[in-house]
Amino acid sequence: LKEENASLRSKINKLQIFSETQADKMRKLEKKLEENKIKEEKEAQDLEAMVQHVEQNLQLMTKRAVKAENSATKLKQENALLQVQLKNYKTENEALRLGQSVSLAAVKQNADVALQNLLTVLTNSRSSIKQLISGAESLQLVADLLRSIDRISETPEDGR
């Protein structure tokens, strides 16, 4: 009985030691589990914060994309307007070139008419100058005649 008792006590001691070891292991595992829970909660919070940050960035990027699309639309409209203006300016420029050609032809025609008029005036003025010279020569002749009459009329008075 004593032996059996000693054997049972020994088994009980071994079981108590085993139980304490198991309890230590259990406490360590519970502590580790608690640490893991805390760690997972922190990671979950960090992950949630990261998700919120990503969502904010997505919203910001969406706003930027909308703004860029609006800007692109405005630029396309402005480009179309500028293309129309450019076409109008080209058309106007071509019209001005054609008008300039017409104006140049009119100026040339006017210059030709002016040249013809100048030639006519020159011809007429030559004729008038010839008439003036002829008239001046006639006047010179009359003046010479008048002088000689004065001499003729003076001579008899001296001779009397």
TrEMBL record:
Keywords: Coiled coil. GO terms for cellular component: centrosome; ciliary basal body; early endosome; midbody; recycling endosome. GO terms for biological process: positive regulation of cilium assembly; positive regulation of protein localization to cilium; regulation of cytokinesis. Residues 19-92 form a coiled coil. Belongs to the ENTR1 family. This is Endosome-associated-trafficking regulator 1. The lineage of its organism: Eukaryota, Metazoa, Chordata, Craniata, Vertebrata.
